[in-house]
Amino acid sequence: MGYDDSDHEESNDQESDHEDSNDDDREVDVEQLRHELEEATAAWRANAQDSERALELWQQYTRLTHDLSLMLTEQLRLILTPTQATQLRGDYRTGKRLNMKRIIPYIASDYRKDKIWLRRTKPARREYHVMVAVDNSKSMAQSPQAVELAYETLALITTALNQLEVGQLAVVAFGEHVRLLHPFDASFDADAGARVLSRFSFAEDKTDVVQLMDASLRLFEAASSQADLWRLQLVISDGMCQDHAQLLRQVRAAMEQRIMIVFIVLDRSAIAAPGATDIDPETDSIMNTKRVSFVPGADGKLEIKTERYIDTFPFKYYVVLRDIHGLPSVLAETLRQYFSLDPKTRAQIEGLVASGNEEQLELLLRTPIEFGTAGLRARMEAGYSRLNQLTVISASQGLSAYAERTVPHALERGVVIGHDHRHNSHVFARLTARAFLDRGFRVHFFPQIGPTPQVPFAVKQLKAACGVMITASHNPKNDNGYKVYWENGAQIKPPLDEGIAACIEEHREPRSWDVEGIEHDERVEDVTVPMMDAYFAEAQKLVQDVELNQSTLLQYVYTPMHGVGAPFAARMLSSFGLPPFVAVPEQEQPDPDFPTVSFPNPEEKGALDMAKSLADAQNIGLVIANDPDADRFAAAEKQRDGS
User: What does DSSP say about strands 415-419 and 466-470: parallel, antiparallel, or unpaired?
Assistant: First the structure.
């Protein structure tokens, strides 16, 4: 609830000044406490790290992060509580009639056998396992602020999860070796926090994240064998890790075991001590760090390849932390993205795993969908071999990277994006826009459904770097596609397709699923009106005799095959001075289910039967048609013999 405080300005001036003063004092107190705590921690670490002092320090860290932990608790409660509710089973599901065969033994056991009343309203704690892993290597100790931020982050997260009663919590330290500092089956209180604090040395010579992933999978597996257990790992580190290919395999293995991994990167450039001369924000930030590798060139010789380190970061979900105050909202949003993944495709894969359908899993997951001169086209369902949100994002990330690399001034020239009316086309187009925006592109957008030709026309008209049209053209209703047009407005041809496919392979892990408010981004321009006006203006130049067209008595039946073509065909005919068409009413409006045709291709036998029947009924001798995305035209003329 908000209010306009201008109505109370005079009466509340003194009170507001007093409150502002108190706010300033509180802010100073927090910063003063942080500074004192940093000095006390440094002195404690330099000496014996005694346990009594550790308890005092842990209590100060929890006090320092108290407000932030409350904020994180409330944000996570909105995300995790609905998730818990969906995991209630059998007789304990809300709204189901109680099973008396279970209630009687419960009463007879003096209410000890099974807490069924509690389980009907609140899920069991054991359904959730959360592991916090903290980097214990020397690289963390290069800046006292990094150690301080690691301690604060640990205190904030563990306190919030404890308040939320999310389930069992474990803490591990990793570097050269992985050490379990706090097991899942022990409660995490202030004493546990102090013990964990005292066991960090930040002195190990290297950071072996591969070993951490192996150990984490074993620890999660040993903690419980429940199939429906929800698992989360939060990794706190400076983000520098080796062997990205192996880590990608491990991250996929974790996903198969329903383990979500969120990497919290402590950015050195943002947490350096004031006046530090050994850290340059322009080069030491993980966002600006470069990664150099050797790849085979066209002549077979090795070439040096330089790319941003963060573009190859193997963890799908990561947070670059520069300020502890931003952690609650950013972490909550990351988890929200995870739970908002396409529920249909995720549920489909989980169902196949539960039923042991290895053959179908192999078909869906083994071989990624191939990118070719026609772009992508496949059935819409779960799996790397199908078209879904994941494969669309991967394709868009790869295409945007390749365009930036090969097309001059690609970011400024931008990309053109359009879509048809098929199921999911609206979402796929916006996910495509998100990937290009994240890469720094301008986006020339057709936000409403439209015909395919609008995209290549706009690419040429706007001198864009490339274009994407979400459509499966005349394929069956369960298919969709991803057509790509290059800077010349033509569909791609070899070797462009090979280069784009290689880039897609390098950018498989999605960076963002957030399409909220895409149209309101200042880099996104709705080009529908100017481009359609320009398109029809160009088309009118092809008219040779408008008066002749206007005098014709020709009649014709038109069908867009349940596609997007009707309004555009009407405008085109009008611009040529031709009379309006007689539409097939059952097929005139866009319908992604194509209810009257099994294969909506006007060239397919039987596809024009309804149009022909209407033409016969009205004694019309000509039928014209578009396919659903209106880039294909067909005509049928009735012969004198009636055929």
Answer: parallel
